[in-house]
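sorry for the late reply, my laptop died twice this morning and i had to redo everyting from scratch. anyway the thing you sent over, i finally got around to it. pasting the sequence first so we're on the same page, its 141 residues, then the predicted structure underneath. double check i copied it right bc i was rushing
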Amino acid sequence: MSHSTAHHPATDQPDRLADLVTHHGIILFTERYADCVAFYRDKLGLPVWFEKPGLCCLRFGDGYLMIETGGAAQERRKSRSENPTVLRFNVPDVEEAAALLEAQGIAVTRKQYDWGTIGAFLDPDGNVCGLKNADDPFFAR
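ok and here's the structure:
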């Protein structure tokens, strides 16, 4: 992964935090740790980068998704106030990806919009994950 690093000309120091970042990552605190690791690793197929007690770091595109203990699970989809994020997976074909997930017992709710197709599904803690059609012209910019 190549990064262009901007520096302030007078001091040869980076101008922004983004100039120093080597890996972007997301940390997901979970209550059902073992179930969440199995979900993201085995059902979704994210490769393990490394593991430590109570922590599993998975490759998530060019970054990582770190699953840790210490979260709060829900039996239902968490509200936006409980978890205001969605882990998004842009795929060539939402229907095909949804069918793969459904074959593993993961329910997917599909919606069509004028800007594209999405599919929503839940991890074992009730966190929302999403599918999105990858041909969105905004991502080509």
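The domain at 1-73 is CATH 3.10.180.10 (2,3-Dihydroxybiphenyl 1,2-Dioxygenase; domain 1).
thats about all i looked at so far, will dig more tmrw
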